[in-house]
Amino acid sequence: MPTSAPALYREFTSQAQIDAQYNAGASIPDAASYMQGFVERSRHAREALRCVLDVPYGPTIDETLDIFPAAAPGSPGAPVFVFIHGGYWRALSSKDFSCVALGLQPLGITTVVIDYSLCPKVGIDEITRQARAAVAWVLRHIGEHAGDPARVAVGGHSAGGHLAAMCLETAWDRDYGLARDPLAAGVLVSGLYDLAPLRYSYLQPQIQLDDGVIRRNSPLFAVRASRTPALITWGANESSEFARQSSALHAAWQGAGNASELVAQADANHFSAIDGFASPASPLCRWLAETLGVPHASDGGAGA
Question: What distance lies between CA 156 and its chain's CA centroid?
Fold first, then answer.
């Protein structure tokens, strides 16, 4: 009598099933055009917006960040959004996502886009450490770039959403000597919050997950009480696993007594889910601006 195959993760019994859920690029026919669009819009952002590029935040050549100041030097501090790019921890760079500043700078929000080392050069433990080090640098030094360290938000997309969630759950007081909850907001877009299924995916040869890495780096299972409100969002056209990961984190975040909003973006896929950062009037930009206290953010402007 034939027996069913054992489950690798939840109801999934094969790598092919897990890849179908998590290989976002393969599920979108024109995925390459989305990436090319990010690159072109990011080049435009660096040419059109005031920026300070390749600022080191750590000791290695990969640990740099790009700052797109919203306020002129000497002006009162602007609120700040730290963006962490995706690429499944093994691809892309900060320069591919300068475009997120296009919708935020007109609202009076300084944007910081961080870079980090990639797998397999380093593992996810080290990438998480670098993301946290970058945020700590911003909290300590953004005042030198006309930013307000009391109004710093963190966010990211895909693997960057995972890293942003790890930053929200950092013991900032114990490990960095900062306030316990120094971040004013979190924006998590199409993130990965339980890494366990990726151990059985096409990514495993590069990201090299094991039980310890999964346990230390799955934000879904390390939620703590926090005063930082979070927007957890994804594209409604993404796979059921991306929807489940976001819904599970939202439930855990609220279960710890924290504030969060859960939004499935209509007609959006894994890549277009961050398009809103390029438009000041978008729901993504409006939520961030309102949470950071930008006047008249609901009107898509920074105030008269």
Answer: 1
